[in-house]
Amino acid sequence: MPPRKKRRPASGDDLSAKKSRHDGMYRKYDSTRIKTEEEAFSSKRCLEWFYEYAGTDDVVGPEGMEKFCEDIGVEPENVVMLVLAWKLDAQNMGYFTLQEWLKGMTSLQCDTTEKLRNTLDYLRSLLNDSTNFKLIYRYAFDFAREKDQRSLDINTAKCMLGLLLGKIWPLFPVFHQFLEQSKYKVINKDQWCNVLEFSRTINLDLSNYDEDGAWPVLLDEFVEWYKDKQMS
């Protein structure tokens, strides 16, 4: 039986190569672990992010909101801010409380400015779903009104209607003109909800509008005003 060959001890170059491979594998693992930790939602990081805008308070107010909008690259009047407020279930326009922020951002899995920026397209896409749009539209009424009032003042109503319907309802410019010259100082929730239903179901020539239907007087008057305007 031939003698067994002794295993040649590893040379310095071999040891260096092995060490280099091990170091490379460790660095790859370590960078992957760090990246995973950064991608994972962190309540602590979300809380720190909140206080960048809230300061020493437990609420992001108008000044903090302005900086927040600037950081995420969105105008305060952009409709995506309304969608974000809806996702946070914010109760007052221009303010995010700590509880609203943590609950909403957790549901969105956003704990940094960059993550929220990357979520904006998703928030905008929610407006394309008719069910979500209706929920956001209804939410907007209570969000925008003064909390000691049951109705929405007409100027705020016109702004919010423009934000939500201005680009999707061809008759909105005419309806806005009607509101401008009307006697209405406020819009109640029933009127608000019916405007959306009207925009979705009534033909642009108003040919299927039933004057004896259950529409509020506001819309009866709009139809009458619009028909008179077309005839004059």
From TrEMBL:
Signal sequence extent: none
Domain DCUN1: 41-227
InterPro entries reported for this sequence: DCN-prot, DCN1-like_PONY, PONY_dom
UniProt keyword list: Nucleus
Region (Disordered): 1-23
Listed GO MF terms: cullin family protein binding; ubiquitin conjugating enzyme binding; ubiquitin-like protein binding
GO cellular component: nucleus; ubiquitin ligase complex
Subcellular localization: Nucleus
Entry's Gene Ontology BP terms: protein neddylation
Superkingdom of origin organism: Eukaryota
Nucleus as UniProt keyword: yes
Pfam family, one: Cullin_binding
Protein name listed in UniProt: DCN1-like protein
